Sequence to fold (314 residues):
Amino acid sequence: MLAALLLLTLKADVWLQPGAAHPGDLVLITVDALTHAPTGRLGNEELTFLPAADHAHGVWQALVGLKVDQKPGVLALELSGRDEHGALHLGGTLDVLQPAFRHRELTVGAKFTSPSKKDQQHSARDQVAFNEAFDRDFEPFAFTHDFVWPRPPDLTAPFGDIRVLNGRKQSQHFGIDLDSEVGDPIWAANDGTVVMARDCFASGNTVLIHHGARLFTAYFHLSKFEVKQGQVVKAGQRIGLVGKTGRVTGPHLHWGVKIDGRWANPTSLLSMAFVAPPAAPVVAAPDLESMPPTVPDAGISDPSTSPDASRGTP
Ligand SMILES: [Zn+2]
Fold:
């Protein structure tokens, strides 16, 4: 479960969060004591480093989302950079654990599995709007502190559920569902800019926030918007109210996280320390099983045993 991190130089240090990750998790790589942004890769993924979220001098960070079908095993981290003495190389490894995605059957309105021509057109226009909203550069991190829950952490469906809708159409759940009532407030998970506030066919009333670094948070099925596209928001600011618009079986907040074009597990973002990384380089990174009890464990919690089981979202 622990990352075996090999430092090839004593000048600069590199931290991996978490030390061992599941497919679909976000991974944050922090490097210090470099005069320029390093380059490199984690496995096959090219990394884009930006000045650290807390603007610490000489510190650089890259955020990457593991693919949901990433094979368990070991990924190599290979970085090249420069410090005040010249060029250097840094490396390490990341353990990728077995996925724990569940299979689940759901029943939704027929209009969502066999949409009318009008609904198909609505859905196609939504797709264009999503693509435009997600078309951002690697702008600097727009936040200086860690992410917060947009609602209390009462999970009814974890990230990655593989779902069969009405006995036929299969889809994967690229977010988490937070149990709520219609009218409950929703809070921005961090500072950023609203890049979408739109009535969509499947996701209902939808807010997307860009936090820099091609990192987005998504809020689906709202009953009311309290922000507009283009608006700058702060962590914890109210952005709207919970609802049951779009393809849902009951009221809740569907919360998603997208990094560089790929949906990732939101709970992995919440357990990440962007600011003030550990005092020593992470050789033994935080164990997934030692996460605070308020963070639901996607691999253990089983909403099918809770009275809210009917509230899953496709
Ligand atoms: Zn959902």
